[in-house]
Amino acid sequence: MVFLFYVFILAYIVWFYLPIALEYITINAVPFYIIGGYVKAIFAGDISIWIAGTNLLGNILLTLPMGVYLYFNGVSLKKTITAAILIPVVIELGQLLFHYIGFATRSVDIDDIILNFIGFLLGYYLAKKCSFVKKSKYID
């Protein structure tokens, strides 16, 4: 039940939070372009580390619970890696689709996929390191 709640919150954040329909959409297909831009902007003093950290860590933390859930439910690392690739791609394709149907405009970014992938694997790794913790009956 808790996991289902998490999935609804995840969908809300990535697809429905602040829905603004714009005429254009920004698409970044260059890996590490936005991440590098944040790093450069921090060192140049153009943006605060708080803004960059919120955007970058937010994408990691967004999918971290998914990795934890998969580990505690006995999903193999191979299947977790597959999910860690597919689910962020579906999220970004959903953002693109919502733009084209005129519902909302969110940027489509390969860096988001990379950061979401890291979140999955980090969650899986942390759960594995904390495997002495018994699975809660509330995690299903």
Please describe what this structure looks like.
By secondary structure, the protein is an all-alpha fold. 68% of the residues lie in helices and 3% in strands. The protein contains five helices and two strands, in the order H-E-H-H-H-E-H. Helix 3 crosses helix 5 and helix 4 runs antiparallel to helix 5. The protein is globular and about 50 Å long. 25% of the residues are buried.
Provide a quick synopsis of the model.
The chain has 140 residues and is mainly alpha-helical. A two-stranded parallel sheet has the order 1-2. The longest helix has 24 residues, at 49-72.
Strand percentage lies at under 5%
Main sheet specs: 2 strands, parallel
How many DSSP helices?
A: 5
How many angstroms separate the termini?
A: 6 Å
Output the structural class.
mainly alpha
**Outline, from the CA principal axes?**
globular
Order of helices and strands: HEHHHEH
Average pLDDT, rounded to a whole number, is: 91
Key phrases:
140 residues, mainly alpha, two-stranded parallel sheet, 2 strands, globular
What topology emerges from the helices and strands here?
Blueprint (H helix, E strand, L loop, with lengths): L1 H15 L10 E2 L4 H12 L4 H24 L4 H24 L7 E2 H20 L11
Parallel strand pairs: 1-2
